[in-house]
Design a protein that fits this description.
single chain; 343 residues; alpha/beta; TIM Barrel; 2 domains; 3-stranded antiparallel beta sheet; 20 strands; 25% helix; 23% strand; globular
């Protein structure tokens, strides 16, 4: 029996027209009857917007929470990660293009249907403390993620978004109040033209999403993929650090190493020294927790006390071990280390 895609959330019908406007993300697509939005998974069927990819999963696996990356949210725990096809941006350097770009040349949405109850049951069975909506862009699959998240929260399972941050304030507030506990938000650049030219999306929406989720009590961490020649200018990195500091000094910033991928081969792999310089900029701007990512063995992997600077969480790749931390405080100076259920 064919399953009818459910009606989407966050849209409005235009008066005296079969066109709808999607208000889930900052693209605000106007979608005529029979067509889909930029994300290619939300389709106007006779004036009703349908979530065409609802529950059609292309990935389900267990990850350490540090892989999201989240360094201050349930450290050392396991997260059930799920993903469906599609994205509402077009970043040419995408590290998961096999998922995000899966619908660029087809309207056929692949995936195995997994009901929300089944996702939660799997998370509980595999002893996962959280469910992460990740790999592709989870915002565009909001209906299924929300259903999973509400059920998960009732079972004591936390919920994590790994997102590009294009969610509208209306959707972000709904997520925070109904199921969302933590989010890692990509901050790809601090220049609006970079977003417009390369990603086909608005920077201001990302900044607003970060502010909104944080104000709603969601634990936020920010990731910047540092790409040589694109967003590694010292001034731009300083602007990013200043923005994050304006939200909170306790928001962790992950500076991730770029590897040539997808359609972007104009830049080399990010030098480790560039990431170290960026980390120093973040710390100098007052951020308490700045990490270097994809450079295993680097001193920037560890968590340091922002007061006395001793290592409180020793990290290597996706492994984390408390070494100077007890009951959420530095063992040397008793400074609280920000986060959710820190050891």
């Amino acid at each position: 029996m064919k399953r009818e895609p459910p009606e989407a959330l966050f849209y409005e019908r235009e008066p005296q027209s079969d066109t709808v406007r999607c208000n889930l993300c900052a693209q605000h697509c106007r979608i005529r009857n029979g067509l889909r939005g930029v994300c290619r998974v939300r389709e106007n069927q006779g004036g009703t917007l349908r979530a065409m990819a609802y529950g059609l999963l292309l990935a389900m696996s267990v990850d350490p929470i540090e892989k999201k990356p989240l360094a201050h949210f349930l450290p050392g725990s396991r997260s059930l990660s799920i993903a469906s096809a599609g994205c509402n941006l077009s970043c040419p350097w995408c590290q998961n293009s096999h998922l995000s770009d899966a619908l660029r040349s087809t309207t056929d949405i692949e995936g195995d249907y997994v009901a929300p109850e089944q996702v939660v049951e799997e998370a509980v069975r595999r002893e996962c403390a959280s469910i992460s909506y990740t790999y592709s862009e989870p915002t565009i699959h909001y209906e299924h993620n929300r259903a999973v998240g509400v059920l998960g929260r009732a079972k004591g399972v936390r919920n994590v978004l790994v997102t590009n941050g294009l969610m509208t304030p209306e959707a972000a507030r709904d997520a925070a109040r109904s199921f969302l506990d933590a989010a890692n938000v990509d901050l790809k650049a601090m220049r609006p033209e970079t977003y417009r030219r390369h990603c086909q999306g608005p920077l201001d929406a990302v900044l607003e999403c970060i502010r909104t989720l944080h104000a709603e009590g969601v634990w936020i961490e920010v990731t910047t993929l540092v790409i040589p020649g694109l967003n590694d200018d010292e001034g731009e990195l300083r602007d990013a650090a200043k923005f994050i500091r304006s939200v909170s000094a306790e928001v962790p910033w992950h500076l991730s190493r770029y590897h040539p991928a997808h359609r972007w081969h104009d830049a080399p792999r990010t030098p480790a020294q560039t990431l170290r310089r960026a980390r120093e900029i973040g710390l100098n701007e007052g951020l308490h927790y700045v990490y270097t990512g994809n450079v295993w063995g680097d001193e920037g992997e560890h968590t340091y006390c922002p007061n006395c600077h001793q290592i409180v969480m020793q990290r290597h790749g996706f492994e984390a071990r408390p070494v100077g931390l007890a009951r959420g405080k530095c063992t040397r100076c008793q400074t609280p280390i920000a986060g959710v259920q820190m050891p």
